[in-house]
């Protein structure tokens, strides 16, 4: 199973999630999930923990931006492989400017981020213990996050670092066959306890 985690202020309707889903459907794959992540981190952590712990089949995570941050946290917690696309590395720092009232442009949800939310994201930062289970996909032209932070954090992992591009990861669809191969090769059951 491949579980895609979307980014901040996004939804399961994000273009990358939809594109990948269409590709996998064309491969007659029905083991793809894109959960709608709560906007606030404590609720997102609870929902993701429940989702992963309920899985009975081998899985691989794929996350973009804040979804990459969550994927890294889950991968370290449960011993899972993960593909990280222009991932957030320091969510508390990078999202601090969103404290206060926000509206998700995909869902219309109104919510408020506060100091507690930033503290939760800070507590979710984890070291990489087994870089071989990760694939970092990043583009140097990312206008939202500093791609060097992902390259440094995931030293020793498989890395696709491209010149140019942007935060959306231009040309993402070029990698669909490799993503499927990686997921099939490394998918595993979540580690319990």
TrEMBL record:
Coiled coil: none annotated. This is Esterase. It comes from the Bacteria. It comes from Leeia aquatica. InterPro entries: AB_hydrolase_fold, UPF0227/Esterase_YqiA.
